[in-house]
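DM between two lab members

TW: hey, do you still have the CysZ protein entry open?
JB: yeah, one sec
JB: this one, 261 aa:
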Amino acid sequence: MFKNIGKGIKAYFGAFGLLSKLKLWKYFGIPILISLLTGIFFFSMAYVFSDNLGAYIAKIWMWDWGSETFLVISNWIAGLFIIAIGLVLYKHIVLALSAPFMSPVSEKVEAHILGTKAPKSEHSSFGKLLIRGIRINGRNLLKELLFVIPLIFLSFIPVIGIVATILIFVIQAYYVGFGNMDYTMERFFKYKESVQFVRKHKGVAIGNGIIFILMLFIPVLGLIITLPIAVVAASTETVKLLQREGKLQEAQPNNETKAIA
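TW: and the structure you got?
JB:
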């Protein structure tokens, strides 16, 4: 799996150049706007509500001595909790709403790798791509929250907290990588088949997600460049996986992604 994580990370090295070479930036105007607005919203929520949640947490401290210090700590804990949950929500909201715009990007990357002419983006309608994006990322969001919320509380326990924090990072990376890979898989696999494919290649998903999350912490710029670079990197590696397994020749667009006549 570690080898595949390396492949998922390595795919980023040529992604930025490929964005310009294939003239893909034009497809990311609306997704970048979605990313910016969603990111600003969740950071604002952390700023506005951290004090309120912190005051609520501070009530567990029943003594007068050290109460002010504990309140400050509680505010920090509350802020981190909101940001952590906000990051989980942010990723899946952006990935789901961007789905209809990513199909032509993935198709052009595929055509570039295979040395063929990029087809017109006719595999599915805007609505079907959006529904699939919401379905995939909604499923991933629920599963991620199921694992992450308990781990967030465990992360404040000494020693155990280190392991919990690492697990939170890896889990988030896996599911965001899944979402990025599905922009390519939607043309070849049905919903359940996509889940099975990513499980088989979970290392690639984790590798893609690791860089995605790290790039988000670049102030402002991270909200702009992360999605385009991550999607191209994921598309590049997913096409290579499909090619190695012979899926590009064997698979045909499924019923979810047939062209609309």
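TW: got it. Residues 140 and 146 are 10 Å apart (CA to CA). Confidence is low (pLDDT under 50) at residues 255-261.
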